[in-house]
Amino acid sequence: MAVRIVTDSACDLAQAQVDQHGIEVVPLSIRFGDEEYVDRVELSVDEFYAKMAQTDTLPETAAPSPGAFEQAFRKLGADGDEVVCINLSAALSATMQSASTAAKSLEGEIPVTVVDSKALTIGLGNLVIAAAEAAEAGASSSEIVATVESLSDRTRMWGMLDTLDNLLKGGRIGKAQQLMGSVLSIKPILDMSTGEVHEAAKPRTKKKGLLWLRDKVLEFDGVENLWVMAGDPKDAGELIDLLEGSYEGEIHQGRIGPVIGTHGGPGVMGVSFWT
User: Fold this and answer.
1) Angle, nearest 10°, between helix axes 95-105 and 66-77?
2) Is residue 251 included in any domain, yes or no?
3) Residue 49 DSSP SS3
4) Domain containing 134: what range?
5) Same domain, 147 and 82
């Protein structure tokens, strides 16, 4: 009996990575007013950022239905395989709740374990890849869950925003409420290492924010799996240029997709790594 891996589209994994490991991605939906798009299916990353730039309507996200997860679980469990589903932080989205509802409806039929990643974007994606690699190596579902939970505890993630407008509308500002008083004059940096949103710093320029992110990475010894993520690849390139002068390890680059981009807004970027 094999173990198959399911996640949601907040993972920001490239399609090639998803295909390589046979990962099933259940998409969230993105809404612009009355228009709704299925993430990764009806709306690409480029299309999302172009649309956000062209309209004054701030986008919103909607979690997948339990039925969408049930369909994925049935597809992967049809041959008797077990399923481990790793989701976007439960503190930020109802996505895990939908997955849990679907798993419960299949009790006694398909063994499904749902895991709160306490992470988002590539922080989630890296846990999903680690789970898939463990499954390929023959690990049991309980061993895979233990691996994911251990790596989740080691995941560190900080993001910098160009604006707080999207985060405020989406209601995801969490414990960073105190940032609101100086919205116009700062490039807020948020700590999402626990799966919740906390204020980390309030630099007044993008350059100072980039230097803060660089220095945060350099604070840690033994950094693994360092990723620089951004909605705009040029933003990621600026931070990578700063890091390459002082960080000796490999640096991976990726795109922040529509789910996190909806709440982070244009200009969203950040770093994720394991300690």
Assistant:
1) 50
2) yes
3) helix
4) 3-28+66-154
5) yes
pLDDT at 179: 54
DSSP per-residue string spanning 3-29: EEEEEEGGG---HHHHHHHT-EEE--E
- Which among 233, 232, 183 has a CA at the least distance from the CA of 204? 183
3-state per-residue secondary structure call for 117-154: CCCCHHHHHHHHHHHHHHHHCCCCHHHHHHHHHHHHHH
- What are the C-alpha distances in Å from 267 to residues 27, 103, 117, 157, 256? 23, 36, 25, 17, 10
User: Any idea what the CATH number is for the domain that residue 11 is in?
Assistant: 3.40.50.10440
Identity of the residue numbered 230: A
Among the candidates 154, 173, 203, a domain finishes at: 154
Average pLDDT over residues 193-216: 95
Report residue 64 as tokens: 């997948």
Average pLDDT over residues 81-96: 97
- Lowest pLDDT segment from 125-129, 134-138, 168-172: 168-172
Retrieve residue 187's tokens.
Answer: 């490039």
